[in-house]
From TrEMBL, chain A:
InterPro entries: Ald_Oxase/Xan_DH_a/b (IPR000674), Ald_Oxase/Xan_DH_a/b_sf (IPR036856), Ald_Oxase/xanthine_DH-like (IPR016208), AldOxase/xan_DH_MoCoBD1 (IPR008274), AldOxase/xan_DH_MoCoBD2 (IPR046867), AldOxase/xan_DH_Mopterin-bd_sf (IPR037165). Residues 20-140 form the Aldehyde oxidase/xanthine dehydrogenase a/b hammerhead domain. It comes from the Bacteria. It holds the Pfam family MoCoBD_2. PANTHER family: ALDEHYDE OXIDASE 1-RELATED (PTHR11908:SF132), XANTHINE DEHYDROGENASE (PTHR11908). This is Xanthine dehydrogenase family protein molybdopterin-binding subunit. Keywords: Molybdenum, Oxidoreductase.
Automatic annotation (TrEMBL), chain B:
PANTHER family: XANTHINE DEHYDROGENASE SUBUNIT C-RELATED (PTHR42659:SF2). Residues 1-170 form the FAD-binding PCMH-type domain. It comes from the Bacteria. This is Xanthine dehydrogenase family protein subunit M. Signal peptide: none annotated. Keywords: FAD, Flavoprotein, Oxidoreductase.
From TrEMBL, chain C:
Coiled coil: none annotated. It holds the Pfam family Fer2. It comes from Ancylobacter crimeensis. Residues 2-78 form the 2Fe-2S ferredoxin-type domain. InterPro entries: 2Fe-2S-bd (IPR002888), 2Fe-2S-bd_dom_sf (IPR036884), 2Fe-2S_ferredoxin-like_sf (IPR036010), 2Fe-2S_ferredoxin-type (IPR001041), Beta-grasp_dom_sf (IPR012675), Diverse_Oxidoreductases (IPR051452). This is (2Fe-2S)-binding protein.
Length: 788, 267, 173
């Protein structure tokens, strides 16, 4: 067993339990006497509930209880909340529609929660749910984003125009002037398609009430169990924080969708006291489609102003964002502060103005999905860059190079201060790996096979490591976005790291342990990472926004600093030297300039034995905690290049090759980082080629299962060509930038830029399914153009 | 699932009696369509009659130029069978692209044909080869068997026991998969046996599997892909939904049929 | 209620069950073999893949009663006590998993691919044969690598690390 260093592709510690089937996900937990919950959901997009008759259902076999909004009101439970307050263009707070965990007067989307049936067996609960008679007064749906603000139908009776808020960022007047001076303006109409996250593990929850201690335990599929506890305590009012334990055990993927506090876990926790038994709910995939928070769903008009030399003067963006029926936990921040501040991309743009309308519709709530606002921004700027270059007759790579930010720090006109980067380096390296020079030859080869070939760039930037607490507080966040860590050194010298981050695929149990191994000089096998249990771990903010490395690990570094400082003091007594003379390297405390040393484990043991140092000066034990608040966002950036081949007869697009060159600053474990990029690309390709959540005019979800919602499979993707460049992040101790969302942010414009290059028309919507590409070719292709 | 009574008879006769006497009985073969349907509570049969324990319903045999496959033969067996590969390679190719490997390990020929899902693959082979569907009661020509979406000539209590396919060399199946479900968006089985030319299309039509007679007529003049250049069936007859317009599907039928004929002509 | 009896991971299992019990429910809820997961309800994601009489099937699309008298192998029954199966080892070695939820089904499907196609698998074939399994984390890149390497390691008489026809290796952890 040896020390593992930062930068090593060490294999994952957590894998053994997963590859042997010993992972423990929420649905794998069986509590004694547990009953099963099944939610009766609204079949209508919009309806007033006249009455709910549960009499017949209550009498059915196995039924324990049936609860509705009436019981919720009896117990005075609060609404689910949105934790980010946006002030609109008039300085007024956003309009938040009431969001009870079980509907009270109205249902507002298909899948909205009407009642919960709790029964001995799940099938019995389902049987009983079918026997509940709900008298609905069906109202018109507001299913389409485009017309929602003009609709005579109001999703929330008290919110006029179905408008949650109108918001803007940037200098409108300066942007107007830039456009007035422009020699050329490129304009695009963009629809960023609505997506369904589809983590492979469906959401699940078990609520259990302990009457002896008047305390609750909630096992749930959460990316941030402490935040869930805070919301369920402080806002919903299920129990005081210290009487509610939230455990997020192994979680099978999140991608944002498991950040939020949903009706189902709220009801399971609450109902467990009412029925006096553990209440378990495991969503099936159909429920996930209906009620997981969806992602994206923007309609945007974007304009880019340039001078005669192709230098960008200004960017003007108008976006309408679909919020769905309710404002989900962080929904309001997605099309605002996680979106508009990224519109500057990698470019030096003197003036930017973004105007956003956040709109209610009778569809599932929309919130963060991998990238959350940043993919939407990147799609806008990277499509504009490609189209502008084509309109100007300039090579798209050269056009980007001409406009790259080159001096750091760089203050954009939209909040962000980029700290460091080398965008040219990533682009150059990507072009080399992708063999852009050989593209012409490959295109001719494809043409000989009757295929169309195209190449597309995406030079993305994202703001990660969210986020400095004061900064986000000033922008409306209801919480700080620091992270916590505790380092517990045990008497035998092994170490437990308690982190407020949560791992649901990202490999924290390995990378965090790798950091500790490197720093303390102990084998990685002697480090355990503990997370996901509010009874074990100090308050923490959880995992999202590619923050666990940059923020979560920085907190561990701070705690390790304290551990080392204290251990040095103890070592100085053991070695009978001055603490100033103690050096710590490779797990050994050494008196400088001598061969007198003692290893880490011995110091740990002595810390607890406490015989050999004055406990009046040094407390016994070796355990330190830290809270780390970042000083800035981090700015991962890079270039992805996609090459596609299209069969013009069927419209089918094949990804011929993919090159990703990313600058994530310091990389702790390149194997894990590359894996994160692979997965992100797959989701981005999914958005570009296959995935779309679609509601019909009546607000019925047409893509309600994997039969209609196309998920990328192995055959839909190539192997990826990967590369890194590195500029160290100056704002955190490890120099990390974050990597979790990069692929999903970079990929969609790369794909669409490649397809539009192949087809010779810009009018390609996402997803570019075979039928869509064929329709585009029919309308705008060579034959159509010749006919004009 | 809604509750049901499960039966596991050991003979076709007993199975037929059970399903006939049940108020709303359903036969269970491989279950790859039926079980998902039941799980989503889209059907509520009172009785399920599992054919899994009935002997002699599976197996592959070649007699002369007739390939006979038992109704309970799994797709994977057909795909991997050296007999099928030698006598009727197009059928092995078709079986190899049904669903996915796990589905092919459970799904059966008889189940697929009896269900007549408008996007299923086997109905195209039956129709495209002029197969004979043999039941516990009679023999039914494929041309008389498929009656529309999920509709067949089977009578209540009638059970497919095997299907006889003519061993045609000049035959091919080409499938263009639905991006989400992986069923056929368009699947075309083209075959030429002396003067009998057949082009059977699955996935595309609002009425389920069909023979594209216009194409067949054209191919009688010359059995080559080129013959179908520019041809497509009427778009009005095709499915039109979020995954593709009727025009797209009609166009796709033309393209995929041409590719199937090219492959069949080269076989 | 009817009684079902089958062999699961080499041991006889029998229970009195509701006829609508799916094989996956029987494994998870009756036998507490929770390594087999449920990721969808339309028979597509493959997280529930187990071997039924040696063939990979989706245990969410088989009634427990249909498995009467059959031999079932789940992820827990792959390899031997204290020994990882080469395919399990390959998934770890090549980072073929992230959240781990699809992984048991992926590994069971991968072993089935090797049974049908042998030890030398091309990338194209692997991608085609993984059609019945969805992963949302990995983009499949490392899964494909893992399956190819795991297939090689399953070959009888492999050199370093192999222990002959069982293809089992000592667990490294």
């Amino acid at each position: 067993m040896t020390v593992t260093r930062i930068g090593e592709a060490v294999r994952r510690k957590e894998d053994h339990r997963f590859i042997t089937g010993k992972g423990q996900y929420t649905d794998d937990i069986f509590r004694p006497r547990q009953a099963h919950a099944y939610f009766l959901r609204s079949p209508h997009a919009h309806a007033r509930i006249r009455s709910i008759d549960t009499a017949e259902a209550l009498a059915m076999p196995g039924v324990v209880a049936i609860l509705t909004g009436k019981e919720l009101a009896e117990d005075k439970l609060g609404d689910l909340i949105c934790g980010w307050m946006i002030h609109d263009i008039h300085g007024q707070p956003m309009k938040m529609g009431s969001h009870p965990a079980l509907a009270k007067e109205k249902v507002r989307y298909v899948g909205d929660h009407v009642a919960v049936v709790i029964a001995e067996q799940l099938d019995q609960a389902k049987d009983a749910a079918a026997a509940i008679a709900v008298d609905y007064d069906v109202l018109p749906a507001v299913a389409e984003l485009a017309g929602a603000t003009d609709s005579a139908t109001l999703v929330h009776d008290e919110i006029p125009g179905n408008l949650a808020f109108e918001w803007h960022l940037g200098d409108a007047a300066a942007t107007e002037r830039a456009f007035a001076e422009a020699r050329h303006v490129t304009t695009l109409e963009i629809v960023n398609n609505r997506l369904i996250p589809n983590a492979m593990e469906p959401r699940a929850a078990i609520g259990e009430y302990d009457s002896g201690n008047d305390a609750y335990t909630l096992w749930t599929t959460s990316q941030n169990p402490h935040v869930a506890r805070l919301v369920l305590s402080a806002f919903v009012g299920i129990a005081p924080e210290h009487k509610l334990r939230v455990i997020a055990p192994d979680v099978g993927g999140g991608f944002g969708s498991k950040i939020f506090i949903y009706a189902e876990e709220t009801v399971c926790a609450w109902a467990s006291k009412r029925v006096g038994r553990p209440v378990k709910w495991t969503g099936d995939r159909s429920e996930a489609f209906l009620s997981d928070a969806h992602g994206r769903d923007h309609i945007t008009t974007a304009e880019l102003a340039m001078d005669e030399r192709g230098k960008i003067l200004g960017l003007r963006v108008k976006t309408r964002a679909n919020m769905g029926a309710y404002l989900s936990t962080f929904a309001s921040s997605i099309p605002t502060y996680l979106y508009a501040p990224l519109l500057s991309g990698q470019y030096d743009i003197p003036a930017i103005h973004a105007a956003v309308e956040a709109v209610y519709t009778t569809t599932a709530p929309v919130d963060a999905y991998r990238g959350a606002g940043r993919p939407e921004a990147t799609f806008v700027i990277e499509r504009l860059m490609e189209v502008a270059a084509r309109e100007l007759g300039v090579d798209p790579a050269d056009f980007r190079k001409r406009n790259f930010v080159r001096k750091f720090p760089h203050q954009t006109p939209v909040i962000m201060a980029y700290d460091t980067g080398d965008y040219r380096a990533s682009l150059d390296k990507a072009m080399k790996i992708a063999d852009v020079k050989g593209f012409g030859r490959r295109r001719r080869h494809s043409a000989r096979q009757g295929k169309l070939r195209g190449l597309g760039y995406s030079c993305y930037i994202e703001a990660c490591g969210i986020a400095p607490s004061q900064a986000v507080g000033s922008l409306g966040a209801g919480v700080g976005l620091w992270e916590s860590a505790e380092v517990r050194v045990n008497p035998t010298g092994n170490v437990e790291i308690l982190t407020g981050s949560h791992s649901h695929g990202q490999g924290h149990e390995t990378t965090f342990a790798q950091l500790v191994s490197d720093r303390l000089g102990i084998p990685i096998e002697q480090v355990t990472v503990v997370h996901g249990d509010t009874d074990k771990v100090q308050f923490g903010m959880g995992t999202y926004g590619s923050r666990s490395g940059a923020v979560g690990m920085s907190a561990i570094v701070k705690a390790l600093d304290k551990v080392e400082a204290k251990a040095k003091k103890i070592a100085s007594h053991l070695l009978e030297a001055s603490v100033a003379d103690i050096e710590f390297r490779d797990g050994q405390f050494t008196v400088a300039g001598t061969d007198r040393s003692i290893d880490f484990a011995s110091v740990a043991l002595n810390a607890y034995v406490a015989h050999k140092f004055p406990t009046s000066e040094i407390e016994p034990g070796l355990k330190e905690g830290a809270f780390y608040d970042p000083v800035n966002f981090t700015f991962p950036a890079g270039t992805h290049i996609c090459e596609v081949e299209i069969d013009p007869e069927t419209g089918k697009t094949t990804i011929a090759s993919w090159t990703a060159v990313d600058d994530f600053g310091v990389v702790i474990n390149p194997m894990i980082v590359e894996g994160q990029v692979h997965g992100g690309i797959a989701q981005g390709v999914g958005q570009a080629l296959m995935e779309a959540a679609s509601y019909d005019r009546d607000g019925q979800l047409v893509t309600g299962s994997f039969m209609d919602y196309a998920m990328p499979r192995a055959e839909d993707l190539p192997s990826f060509q990967m590369g890194f460049t590195q500029t160290r992040c100056p704002s955190n101790p490890l120099g990390i930038k974050g990597c979790g969302e990069a692929g999903a942010i970079a990929a969609p414009p790369a794909v669409i830029n490649a397809i539009t290059d192949a087809l010779g028309t810009e009018a390609v919507p996402m997803p570019a399914t075979p039928s869509t590409v064929w329709e585009v070719m029919r309308a705008f292709g060579p034959a159509a153009r010749a006919a004009e | 699932m809604f509750a049901f009574t499960y039966h596991r008879p050991s003979s076709v006769r007993r199975a037929a009696a059970l399903v006939a006497s049940a108020e709303d009985g359903k036969l269970l073969a491989g279950g790859q369509t039926l079980l998902p349907t039941l799980k989503l509570r889209l059907a509520a049969p009172g009785d399920l009659v599992d054919l899994g324990a009935v002997p002699d319903l599976s197996g592959i045999s070649l007699a002369g130029r007739t390939l006979t496959i038992g109704a309970m033969t799994r797709h994977a067996e057909v795909a991997a069978s050296p007999v099928v590969r030698a006598a009727l390679p197009a059928l092995a190719d078709l079986a190899a692209v049904i669903g996915d490997p796990q589905v092919r390990n459970r799904g059966t020929l008889g189940g697929s044909v009896a269900n007549n899902d408008p996007s299923a693959d086997y109905p195209a082979a039956c129709l495209g080869l002029g197969a004979t569907i043999i039941t516990n009661q009679r023999r039914i020509e494929a041309d008389d068997f498929f009656l529309g979406l999920f509709e067949t000539a089977l009578e209540p209590g009638e059970i497919i026991t095997r299907i006889a396919f003519p061993a045609v060399k000049k035959a091919a199946y080409v499938k263009f998969r639905h991006p989400a479900s992986r069923f056929a968006m368009v699947g075309v089985f083209a075959a030429k046996r002396t003067s009998d030319i057949r082009v059977a299309v699955t996935g595309a039509s609002q009425n389920g599997v069909f023979r594209w007679q216009e194409a067949e007529q054209a191919l009688r003049r010359r059995f080559a892909g080129k013959t179908l250049d520019g041809m497509s069936p009427p778009a009005d007859d095709m499915v039109s939904d979020i995954h593709g317009s009727g025009e797209y599907r009609a166009h796709l039928v033309g393209v995929i049929a041409r590719r199937a004929v090219e492959a069949a002509a080269d076989a | 209620m009817p009684i079902v009896t089958m062999t699961v991971n080499g041991r006889t299992a029998s229970a009195d069950i509701d006829p609508r019990t799916l094989l996956v429910q029987f494994l998870r809820e009756n036998l507490m073999l929770t390594g087999t997961h449920v990721g969808c309800d339309t028979s597509q994601c493959g997280a529930c893949t187990v071997h039924l009489d040696g063939d990979a099937v989706k245990s969410c699309t088989v009634l427990a009663l249909q498995a009467e008298g059959c031999a079932v192998t789940t992820i827990e029954g792959l390899g031997a006590p204290g020994l990882l199966h080469p395919m399990q080892e390959a998934f770890r070695e090549h980072h073929g998993l992230q959240c781990g939820f699809c992984t048991p089904g992926m590994i069971m499907a991968a072993v089935d691919i090797v049974h049908r196609h042998g030890n030398e698998l091309s990338e194209t074939l692997i991608r085609h044969e993984l059609d019945g399994n969805i992963c949302r984390c990995t983009g499949y890149h490392n899964i494909v690598k893992a399956v190819a390497e795991g297939a090689r390691a399953m070959a009888p008489a492999m050199g370093a690390g192999g222990t002959g026809s069982t293809g089992l290796r000592t667990a490294a952890e």
